[in-house]
Amino acid sequence: MNSLPLSPLKYKHSILVIDDEEAILDIMKITLANQGYDLHTANSAEEGLKILKESPNFSLIISDQIMPGMLGVQFFAQAREICPNAMRVLLTGYADMDAIIEAVNSGGIHLYITKPWRKDELLYSINQILSRAELLIENQQLTELVKKQNEALMELNKNLEEKVRMKTLHLEQSTRELKTSYERIQLILEGAELAMSKIVESRDPYTAGHEQHVAKIACTIARNMSLPNIQIEAIRIAGSLHDIGKIAVPSEILTKPGRLNKLEMEMVKTHAQNAYDILKTIEFPYPIAKIILQHHERIDGSGYPQGLKGEEILLEARIIGVADVIEAMSSHRPYRPTLGIESAMAEITRNRGILYDADVVDVCSRIYQDQGPKGLLQM
Ligand SMILES: [Fe+2]
Prior knowledge:
60% of the residues lie in helices and 7% in strands. By secondary structure, the chain is an alpha/beta fold.
């Protein structure tokens, strides 16, 4: 039984022992028998080198220092070339201390064992050096693994960077195209709006410019109410088209001088619903058709076509409704001269919160007081 504890080894190791004395080789064989090693022996340095060349997978090489033909240190110098990963142990007598120092300093030898040795010390030394060899192997495998993983990671990172770069380029290109396409659509939309309002005006030349003026007044009110740009844009489009439904009203009625009779009035009133029917299928980015449908609705429910009340009426329609009254009363009509902006302001103030939205009227009054008629009309 060994008195020195041995560490468990993971692998089956091949060991090569070189000594010119057969007796030493026999002792080695006996000592290392039943230890689980794959033991090979050679009785000269030349034979040892031959074995290594044939099979360079030894974990441990143990060599005598004093051998005829070649010293152990010289043998190890060559063995190291053939089998660089093997652990190297020199067997030597006390008299060879100079050789040991030279061998250890040159780095070629991992351990030396002096003759004679105790069996348990030899087994312990071999076990320890093989444990160290296993650690070195595992360390090497781990280093290799980390290196491979790093390379894979770098490759992945490179691919990822390239993908991100390509995706960014693609996105930038798409954004540019989208912007161009949006601008083109805006132009088409504005062109279509203008064409539609011109058609209405062509049938009622007395109100030429009315829709554009209403759009401007309504936008001025909306800006002063600090509404978001998208809502102001909806008001501008709806204002520009709010009377498009008059296209379905006979032009004799639209241009008739003097007051309209009840039936004619009813026909004129259909323009809100007509406009809605014309525009409802167009996919505006805002509820343009609905805003126009409601531009004659009044806060107290006295308006048309649905008799909506208060906040049932869209804010955009409440603004256009007030702008429509201001513009209509400030302009000449075939059946009457202009009533003037003063009368228009008096009308909306008198009916503040009754026919017209109180906040919208307040904003109009403020603009009128601060900037005069020009602030509101800006025509
Ligand atoms: Fe109208």
